[in-house]
Write a structure and sequence with these properties.
By secondary structure, the chain is α+β, with helices and mostly antiparallel strands. It contains 22 helices and 29 strands. A seven-stranded mixed sheet has the order 11-12-9-19-16-17-18. A five-stranded mixed sheet has the order 14-22-21-20-15, sandwiched between helices. A hairpin with a 5-residue loop joins strand 16 and strand 17. Helix 5 packs parallel to helix 6, helix 6 crosses helix 7 and helix 18 packs parallel to helix 22. The longest helix is centred in the first third of the chain and has 28 residues. This is Xanthine dehydrogenase family protein molybdopterin-binding subunit. Pfam families: MoCoBD_1, MoCoBD_2.
């Protein structure tokens, strides 16, 4: 038995499996909506299905998601196409990918697309009957639906042109936004046809292109948002304003659970230039002013006395990250099995050598470039309008409606592009500014924009949970692993927010359970221990630490058995051709596997290898390191990724490079520590991230196995920490089992 990872919570079987690669597609409601897993998450997220478009009321008839062409496409008179995407662009290139997929079937160059995030509505629940930008799941979950959307729209254009020209549909073809009749040399643009086309009933079946004829899918199409981002035209939430808006800056309680009691200099602060008012909030105070800078100066001047409150998740005054790790180390409960096979007791009893090890990883901040912000406005028609960064518009619509005492259809959500992603923009308790914006806008009767400073962002971020794992492994007389017993101890975001009653938290064990290596007897246990801080999803979720734990211990088993870790992995993948091919590919990419130590340019170096299977993709990583002045220096990272198939190879390469950078930063430097119930890192001066001078060369190879589409935004992260740690061990003989690695001072 293998318990699925957190990816399975998002995935109720790939939607694309219901879509043929070419020919005619007949989409059933069941094929689009998925089954039990989808229904579970949708129920948790929405508490009720939203309307087709926000503002129409929950009783409106829900269409089959992804089939109402006018809900997605606006074909403009200048030949451009506006696509309302179900997904939020946050740097992962989703807008370009959606333009490629829809444009391929619609027959419009992706460069002519303008892509915006769609408002809440049942039309956009295309992720197995729900809507969520996360889990590296957007393209792979909607690939078939978006292709069919483009094909359906193209079919409507041909039918409208046939009626206008009084010609058989079979005699018409399309070319980049134009319907053409070759024999008579007549043509009509989509813009000329759109009004008539949108009045036609969409066909239940529409021909899809043969992949062999693809012009844009599978090609490195330039990103459509590059120009706006590079020229400053791109609008993020912190850039937005609305008429008659007040600015709010916030001072949070030092410890979650405290409430404002009294102000020592209230009159002086109220008299500061531009100040409108001082407002109390749950766990915080806000100053409203005519500019954010004035609001910030005022709120930072305000002298606040804090008292303990009644917050449900208040942090104890004596809570510390060191104490939390000690509690995880001290937990010896058996937990619940996430994976088990073979006779573990007999395998250990007959082994030639048995080893044990414990690994841990710290709390991590998201440290996104754009600080959190939100704008709230109550309109005269009784609606609430919100502009806020988010990864799930329907979730935020439902949450805001409950806070405001409104029906969800009375809440309008605007979802600007995100200036940072990484799992930050979900519904985390006390970690988002939009509840403050709603409360303040209601209190003062004007639109209010709340913008947190960097210090307030770090103080109230929802952190990646601290991780701990205990391993016991054995090798046989031939040096190959014969037994493995692992226990993951702690808490994960899937268990906290989605499956609290299940014995196994999938986000705690992914990257440990379900690894592809052949080991005759193994067991992985999930030992749940609640953690007081607000925890969150973080780029690659449990894989971000668990693959470090597992792949490092696998190298320890190789050393115990006198085996080369690369060759041992290859032997353990003899019945897994997809992973074995990828491992050989990364070795070839690196110029051939060599562990070392060896000398290059007069510097002593070594290499480490690791593999990971996150979010439907497979990844193999090799790192080359040296030690200089006690610090780890990573010279090169070679990463081979198999996403099944590539929609945009250039975006995949960029995402792998980005993921590798954050994976290296987290493994070498990043850490949040708690003392006295409060995080000690409040800005980048104390929360170190990888500087440009320590960025290695990153080499990427995409290997298309033809498997189902996998994710690309997160899979590049988890292989980096173990590959670096394994290289360090090969170079120094010192095994690092605790992150970040900067805690260990290594000799020259």
């Amino acid at each position: 038995m293998i318990h699925p990872g957190s990816d399975a919570i998002l995935q109720a079987g790939p939607v694309e499996l219901a879509i043929p690669e070419t020919g005619i597609a007949n989409l059933s409601r069941r094929g689009l909506l998925g089954s039990a897993a989808g229904a579970l998450l949708l129920g948790v997220m929405l508490k009720g299905r939203p309307a087709r478009a926000q503002g129409e009321g929950l009783a409106a008839a829900a269409p089959r998601p992804g089939t109402q062409v006018p809900a997605f496409l606006e074909i403009r008179q200048d030949g451009t196409v506006r696509l309302l995407s179900p997904f939020v662009e946050g740097g992962q290139g989703i807008a370009t990918a959606m333009a490629q997929i829809v444009g391929e079937e619609l027959d419009v160059d992706p460069a002519r697309f303008v892509v915006d995030c769609a408002p809440p509505g049942a039309d956009y629940l295309v992720v197995n009957g729900r809507r969520l930008t996360g889990g590296s799941y957007s393209v792979r979950s909607s690939y078939g639906t978006m292709r069919q959307l483009g094909a359906t729209a193209r079919n409507l254009m041909i039918r409208a042109a046939a009626a206008r020209l009084n010609l058989p549909e079979a005699e018409l073809e399309t070319e980049n936004g134009t319907v053409i009749h070759r024999r008579s040399n007549r043509s009509l643009t989509y813009a000329e046809l759109v009004e008539a086309a949108w009045r036609l009933p969409p066909s239940e079946v529409a021909a899809l292109r043969d992949p062999a004829t693809f012009r844009w899918i599978g090609k490195p199409v330039p990103r459509i948002d590059v120009r706006d981002k590079s020229t400053g035209r791109a609008q993020y939430a912190i850039d937005l304003t609305v008429e008659n808006m007040l600015h709010a800056a916030v001072q949070h309680a030092p410890r979650l659970g405290q409430e404002p009691a009294s102000f020592g200099n209230e009159a002086a602060v109220r008299a500061m230039p531009g100040v409108h008012s001082i407002q109390r909030l749950p766990g915080a105070v806000a100053v409203l002013a005519d500019s954010w800078w004035r609001a910030r100066r005022a709120v930072e001047t305000l002298e606040v006395t804090w008292n303990d409150g009644q917050h449900a998740r208040a942090l104890p005054a004596d809570f510390s990250s060191a104490g939390m790790l000690a509690a995880l180390r001290g937990e010896r409960g058996a937990g619940s099995p996430a994976e088990e096979n073979g006779d573990l007791r007999a395998a250990f009893a007959g082994a030639a050598k048995v080893i044990e090890a414990e690994y841990d990883a710290p709390y991590l901040a998201h440290a996104q470039l754009e600080p959190p912000s939100a704008i709230a406005r109550f309109n005269e028609d009784g609606t609430l309008e919100l502009w806020l960064p988010n990864q799930a518009p329907e979730m935020f619509q439902a949450s805001a409606a409950r806070m405001a005492g409104l029906e969800p259809g009375k809440v309008k959500i605007h979802s600007p592009m995100l200036g940072g992603f990484f799992g930050r923009h979900f519904l985390y308790d006390a970690a988002m500014p939009y509840p403050q914006a709603i409360a303040l806008a209601r209190a003062v009767g004007r639109p209010v924009k709340v913008l947190w400073t960097r210090e307030e962002e770090f103080l109230r971020d929802a952190y990646r949970p601290i991780g701990f794992a205990r391993f016991r492994g054995a090798v046989g007389a031939d040096g190959m692993p014969v037994a493995l017993h692992a226990s993951a101890v702690g808490e994960g975001p899937i268990g906290r927010y989605f499956t609290p009653d299940r014995p196994v938290d999938s986000s705690m064990v992914e990257g440990i359970a379900g690894k592809p290596y052949s080991i005759a007897a193994k067991r992985v246990d999930c030992v749940k221990v609640k953690q007081p801080p607000v925890i969150s999803f973080w780029r690659s979720v449990g894989h971000s630490m668990n693959d470090f734990f597992y792949e490092s211990f696998l190298d320890e088993l190789a050393d115990a058995g006198g085996r080369d870790p690369f060759e041992m992995r290859l032997a353990m993948l003899s019945d897994k051709p997809r992973q074995a091919t990828l491992l050989r590919a990364v070795a070839e990419l690196s110029g051939g596997w060599k562990r070392g130590p060896f000398e290059l340019d007069g510097v002593r170096r070594a290499r480490g290898v690791a593999m990971a299977s996150p979010f439907g993709s497979e990844v193999a990583t090799i790192a080359e390191v040296s030690i200089g002045e006690g610090e780890i220096r990573v010279h090169d990272l070679w990463i081979a990724i198999d996403p099944g198939r590539a929609v945009n190879p250039a975006i995949i390469e960029a995402q792998v490079q980005s993921a590798a950078a954050i994976g290296l930063s987290s493994s070498l430097l990043e850490e949040v520590t708690y003392e006295g119930g409060a995080p000690q890192q409040r800005n980048f001066d104390t929360y170190s991230i990888l500087p440009p001078a320590r960025m290695p060369r990153i080499h990427v190879r995409i290997v298309e196995s033809g498997a189902a589409l996998g994710g690309v935004g997160e899979p590049g992260v988890p292989g980096v920490p173990p590959a670096v740690a394994n290289a360090v061990a090969a170079l120094t003989g010192q095994r690092i089992r605790s992150l970040p690695m900067s805690k260990v001072r290594l000799g020259a």
